[in-house]
């Protein structure tokens, strides 16, 4: 079960640039918003059902850090998806991977 979920996650991440490119003429920010919204819903449902007790232990001062992390993630997706409009999938993925190791 764990390996199946891991395989689906790896496949989704590996194919995401191609799927985004296939989205066609949709603006980059629209694609980024849909991607963030859909993934939030997919993650929120099991989180609130399985890990409800752990979610209740989140301190109020940690909420600002969670919000900041979400803003950085949104910025990452906005810039990466915009780069897919400006260059090839291979170049965009290479730039994204090189920025991870800086």
Question: What keywords describe this structure?
Answer:
single chain, 102 residues, mainly alpha, 5 helices, 86% helix
What would your notes on this structure say?
With 102 residues, the protein is mainly α. Helix content is 86%, strand content 0%. Helix 2 packs antiparallel against helix 4. The longest helix has 27 residues. The protein is globular, with a radius of gyration of 16 Å. The protein starts with a helix and ends with a helix. The mean pLDDT is 84.
Cα separation of the termini: 34 Å
Tell me the number of helical segments per DSSP (H or I, 4 or more residues long).
5
Total E-strand runs: 0
Low-confidence stretches: none
Give the gist of this structure.
The chain is mostly helical.
Please write out the topology.
Blueprint (H helix, E strand, L loop, with lengths): L1 H21 L5 H23 L1 H5 L3 H27 L2 H12 L2
Helix pairs in contact: 2-4
């Amino acid at each position: 079960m764990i390996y199946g979920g891991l395989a689906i996650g790896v496949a989704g991440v590996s194919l995401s640039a191609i799927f985004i490119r296939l989205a066609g003429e949709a603006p980059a920010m629209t694609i980024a918003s849909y991607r963030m919204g859909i993934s939030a819903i997919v993650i929120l449902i099991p989180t609130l059902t399985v890990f409800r007790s752990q979610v209740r232990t989140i301190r109020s001062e940690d909420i600002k850090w969670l919000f900041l992390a979400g803003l950085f993630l949104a910025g990452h997706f906005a810039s990466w998806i915009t780069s897919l409009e400006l260059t090839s999938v291979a170049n965009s993925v290479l730039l994204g991977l090189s920025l991870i190791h800086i």
